[in-house]
Design goal:
single chain; alpha+beta; OB fold (Dihydrolipoamide Acetyltransferase, E2P); 2 domains; 13 strands; about 20% helix
């Protein structure tokens, strides 16, 4: 594999994106060839935690930006079974990956693709913020409030956006109520379908101890505030790593990590927001972009 200069998109292609291209639009449009298999290449920016509320209860969603300079935009990989990835294909945020995928049938969100997990290849990792920023800064949006004033425009807005808050007011933490009866039924169904001759069973899916949400003001001058649930894999993973802590210390650890550190005054924080399929006028926080303040 040729060595790549990881300073930005130009490193992967002979012609980099130009400033007049629209980085805010959805990614490669699947509607022209609805069921055609395509090889996608993207920089992963978010990975959500598994949730049995989804009908694909053992999967996660990953999203990022296209590495194709001629078709820039957001791409979301839906229903990705992490534990079924091939050898060496495990990936994290700010990895450059390639994968075969088809457009997500029946989903009006143009960004959504259904990947073939065994075809996923992890190519490189962008370790430094200075390598990531040329990719992501062009995608920073102006406001979450402006499209909401026009509902039709809001529902037609991209399903994935990157918004820099004017002010982050609070990390709201509430106890997780545990899986519902329906969610437990889904998990039990997975256990019954599990094939011991296949991939290793990842074990029971445990709920996190806390549900988190950011309360913040977007850049709109008249913004009266947003509160959006955190779906970030790392938010749940940290809780599992610190499972031995009492509630008060776990709250403090989450606040230190997800408010004081990544939303601190020395960071140019922005939120990766994803629109819900069940509530199309609702966005969740899928992850946080937090390069050092310049």
């Amino acid at each position: 594999m040729p060595q790549l200069d990881l300073a930005g998109p130009a490193a992967l292609h002979s012609e980099p994106p130009t400033a007049d291209r629209d980085h805010s639009r959805p990614g490669p449009d699947p509607r022209a060839a609805f069921d055609q298999l395509a090889r996608l290449r993207l920089l992963i920016t978010v990975k959500t935690a598994p949730d049995p509320a989804d009908r694909h209860e053992r999967t996660v969603y990953a999203a990022g930006i296209s590495a194709d300079p001629f078709r820039p935009g957001w791409i979301r990989l839906t229903s990705l079974p992490i534990h079924e990835l091939g050898p060496g294909a495990a990936f994290g945020t700010y990895d450059i990956i390639s994968v075969d995928a088809r457009p997500a049938a029946g989903d009006p969100r143009h960004e959504n693709w259904r990947p073939l997990p065994r075809t996923l290849v992890r190519e490189h990792h962008l370790k430094r913020w200075q390598w990531r920023q040329p990719w992501l800064d062009p995608y920073l949006g102006e406001s979450l409030c402006r499209p909401r004033r026009d509902r039709d425009a809001y529902l037609d807005a991209p399903a994935l956006i990157l918004v820099r808050p004017r002010r982050v007011d609070e990390l709201v933490l509430v106890p997780h109520p545990g899986w519902t009866a329906e969610q437990r039924r889904r998990l039990d169904g997975y256990a019954l379908r599990y094939d011991p001759s296949g991939t290793p069973d990842p074990g029971p899916l445990r709920p996190p101890r806390f549900i988190g949400a950011y309360r913040y003001r977007c850049p709109a001058y008249d913004c009266d505030g947003h509160q959006q649930t955190i779906r970030d894999w790392e938010f749940v993973a940290l809780q599992h790593r610190l499972a031995g802590l009492p509630d008060d210390r776990l709250r403090a650890a989450l606040t230190t990590a997800f408010l004081d550190r990544i939303c601190g005054p020395d960071r140019d924080t922005a939120f990766y927001l994803g629109r819900s399929s069940h509530q199309p006028d609702t966005y969740d926080v899928l992850g946080v972009y937090w390069p050092p303040r310049r």
